[in-house]
Amino acid sequence: MPCLVVLNLETAETDAKKISAVEEKLSKYGFRKSIPADDQTSVPLPASTFAGTAGGGTSKEIAEAVREKVREILNESGVKGAFFVSVGDDWCWAAGKTS
User: Fold this and answer.
1) pTM
2) Is residue 85 within 8 Å of 33, Cβ to Cβ?
3) 9 bridge partner residues
């Protein structure tokens, strides 16, 4: 069963081209700015959050592999900042917003 992988980025980067390059590269690895819902809709994630699924190892192995890939993507794109990777293998999610 695939694991849910959630990635949060924190960067002070203001160059839209660099941010776009990071988002494009993350997308190639299955990380999206939205997450599919059971009702076939797509729920947008907060601005600095990406989500995807992964398999082929333990949660720890997946988290470490994603960490290294994200570090590589940020370095290639010339973007500095911090990031957090969370991996869950028996997952569920809920979304909400305030008005």
Assistant:
1) 0.87
2) no
3) 83
Tell me how crowded residue 84 is: count the other CB atoms within 10 A of its CB. 14
Question: Domain locations in the chain?
Answer: 3-7+16-88
If you search the block for the tokens 């849910």, which residue do you land on? 4
At 93, the pLDDT band (50, 70, 90 cuts) reads confident
**Calpha distance 46→24 (Å, rounded):** 17
DSSP output for 37-72: -TTS-EEEPPTTEEEEEE-SS-HHHHHHHHHHHHHH
pLDDT at 45 over 90: yes
How far, in Å, CA of 56 to CA of 75, rounded?
25
The CATH code of domain 3-7+16-88 reads 3.30.70.2360
* Residue 24 bridge partners (DSSP): none
